[in-house]
Amino acid sequence: MGSWGTLGPALLSLAGVALGAGGSLFGQYLVSRASARQLEIQESAAHRAELKNVILKFLSIASQVEKAAFTPPHAGVSTADPGIDRLVDDLWLAHAEIDLSARSEPLRGAAYRYAARLTEAGRGALADASALRGPQVQFFDAAYDDMWPGQRRAAGDALTPR
Known about the structure:
Strand content: under 5%
Order of helices and strands: HHHHEE
Strand order of the largest sheet: 1-2
Number of helices: 4
Shape: rod-shaped
Helix content: over 70%
Mean pLDDT: 84
């Protein structure tokens, strides 16, 4: 039992060091995992903010194109409005910004379809604004899905998991 008296405390000390090192490594693992999740959340929030700005710019121009396309001309004023060509060009530039900022292909496609219908309206090819509603709804749905993947809108725009 004499050897246990000298060997026991050394083994217990060694076990304590190993347990402490293991606990320290596990703690570092948990911290790095939490940091990675926090970084992912921050990047997602930054993407949403950037995409929101781009979408709002696109919608602002889309609204101007729609108003210009479906506002009846005043008496004595030519029906050809040179400003609408500039608005349509601005619309396609805003579409390009969405194309660059979007994470998903459905948003890119919906933005293209909506911009194409607005261009038709601006060129006088559409007689009724209701033809824009389908592409507009698809655009809003795709934008929402791109900004909050895995979430769906419920009553009152609350976020709920899919």
